Amino acid sequence: MVALAFIIGLIIAIPIGPLGQIIINRSLNRGFWHGFSLAIIDAFVNGILCVVFLYGISSLEMQPVLKLVLNIIGFTFLLFVGIKEFCFTRKVLKKNVLFETKTSVRFKDILENLLITIVYYISNPTILAFWINFSTIIHGKILVDATLTSILIFSFLFAVGVLTSQYLGIIFMKNIQHIEKFKKIIKYASTGLFILTFGYFFFTIIQSALEIQAANF
Length: 217
Fold this sequence. Notes:
Blueprint: H1 2-12, H2 18-30, H3 32-54, H4 64-87, H5 107-123, H6 127-141, H7 148-176, H8 180-215
Helix pairs in contact: 1-7, 2-3, 2-4, 2-7, 3-5, 3-6, 3-7, 4-5, 4-8
C-alpha cells in the first residue's frame, strides 16, 4: 500500500493541467519557491480530498445552479490568472539565480497561491467526477477493508507522490528552459493547454445552463 499510494500520486500529477502550468511558469519566471510553494499547497489539498472521498463522502451531487456559478467563477478567475501569468510575466530568471534568496516567497504570495488552488479545485468541473471514480477504484482494489488510519497513511503518501511529481517537473523544466528551441515549445504548449482548458470550462458553463433550462420546463 505504501509504494502504491506514492506511485499513484506520482503518476496522477504527471499530466500538466492549468495549475501545473502555473507552478512551472512561476518557478521559471519568479524563482523556485514561488512555484514550489504552490505545488506544496496543491499536494496538501490533494491529500485532504483523498481523505474526504476515501472516508465516504463520495455520493455528493452538486446542484446545477451552484455548479454553473462555480464554473463561471472558475473560468473567470483562471482566465485572469492565465493572462497574468503568460502575457505579463517577468523575464525568465537565469539558471544560476533560480534558487537565490531574493526570490523568496512572501506571505502575500502564499495567500495568492492558496486562493488559486481553492478556486481551481472548487470550480473545476472534472474534480468531483475524478474523486468519486478514484475513491471507488481504491476501495475496490487497494483499501478493501479500509480503516481511518490506513486512509490517512494512503492519503499522506498520495500527496507526497503528487508533490514529488511537481518537483521533478519544475527541475526538468528548469534544466531545459535555457535551451532556446525549447522556449517556444514550452510557450506554445502552455498556451494551447490553457486554451483547451478554458474551452472545456466554457463548454461546462453552457451545459450547466442548459440543464437548468431543461429542469425549468
